[in-house]
TrEMBL record:
This is Aminoglycoside phosphotransferase domain-containing protein. SUPFAM superfamilies: Protein kinase-like (PK-like) (SSF56112). It comes from the Bacteria. Residues 50-233 form the Aminoglycoside phosphotransferase domain.
Length: 328
């Protein structure tokens, strides 16, 4: 008779804002066991399960048998991460190295993905901050992100369907005006996280709407692209997206904002991302600056709730120094 052995328990977040996810994480554990017990792939096999100690937004189970090692990833959000598997497949077809998806479906109301295990550390774990700059790894990341944005999508915002690719909004402006976006903007302003000294948000909206109307192309966006979600393989392996549909500038701006937040305001990483993405060709600097400002409004509320004050400060200082880029 086959046996399933769990070597640890899921790691829980200490932040109050993540308590809902903690509850969902623990609720899903018996469903992981049932999934393995009833899956034809693991029939008559002894299985060991280890829960990864990273990833606030997903329950990640590393499943190992005598002949293979797989990852079962279950996003904890019931809406924000629909379409993970489809996005990974689109990028794989475009030539980007991602964990191969063996199957996907619904488990206790949550999307799940059973996929390839990548036996490697992330770039964050492999290199210190100076090394990633000196090796020009961010240039390579910029090139990869460009390829990820090449397949054409339709619409803007989150994916609404796990199987059929469907965007939340038809128009970019509808995404900007959505209640969720307005709630984040209001939080940032009420808590004095962002203001006119960091750049005019109304001007940023105007710039982005004009850019999107001229560009008329939506892409499959990662929305969490960076060294912590890239395995140090050759070629690099991209994983763990927060999938959404948008103009490529929005996704690139978020990645630049992330590097500024995490690397102590180090702008060279952002410069390398830009170099790789645009291949040293001219680009719309105003639209990119508007994207960085917009992404700060989008990300600061959560960062503030989990007390990432230093990261917020890094971005605030960067925006003050560069807000002139919004102006003509």
């Amino acid at each position: 008779m086959s046996e399933i052995t769990f070597y640890n328990e899921p790691k829980l977040s200490e932040h109050e804002v993540d308590q809902k996810f903690n509850e969902r994480r623990m609720t899903l554990v018996p469903h992981v066991k049932d999934f393995i017990s009833n899956h034809e792939r693991f029939k008559d096999k002894d299985v060991s399960v280890t829960f990864a100690d990273k990833g606030v937004s997903s329950l990640i189970s590393i499943i190992e048998t005598s002949d293979e090692k797989l990852v079962l990833r279950i996003p904890l959000s019931l809406t924000h991460t629909l379409g993970d598997a489809q996005f990974l497949k689109v990028w794989e077809q475009a030539g980007v190295r991602v964990p191969h998806v063996f199957e996907d479906g619904i488990l206790n109301g949550h999307q799940y993905i059973l996929m390839e295990f990548i036996d490697a550390k992330t770039l964050t774990e492999t290199y210190h901050k100076g090394e990633t700059i000196n090796r020009e790894i961010y240039v390579e990341l910029g090139k990869i992100l460009r390829v990820m944005h090449e397949p054409e999508a339709k619409g803007y915002g989150r994916s609404l369907d796990n199987k059929n690719i469907k965007a939340e909004f038809h128009q970019f402006k509808d995404w900007l005006d959505s209640p969720e976006m307005q709630k984040r903007i209001e939080y940032a302003r009420e808590n004095n996280l962002l203001g006119e000294e960091h750049g005019s948000l109304s001007l940023a909206f105007e710039i982005l709407i004009t850019h999107i109307n001229d560009n008329k192309k939506s892409s499959y966006c990662h929305n969490d692209f960076g060294t912590s979600n890239t395995f140090a393989t050759n070629p690099l392996t991209i994983f763990d997206p927060s999938p959404g549909f948008n103009d490529g500038y929005i996704d690139l701006g978020r990645s630049i904002m992330r590097t500024i937040a995490n690397d102590g305001g180090l702008s060279r990483a952002g410069e390398q991302l830009i170099k790789g993405y645009f291949k040293e060709k001219p680009y719309n600097k105003r639209a990119l600056q508007a994207s960085i400002l917009l992404n700060a409004y989008m990300k600061f509320p959560y960062g503030h709730k989990v007390k990432n004050f230093e990261q917020i400060k890094n971005v605030q200082e960067y925006l003050v120094k560069t807000k002139h880029l919004l102006e003509k």
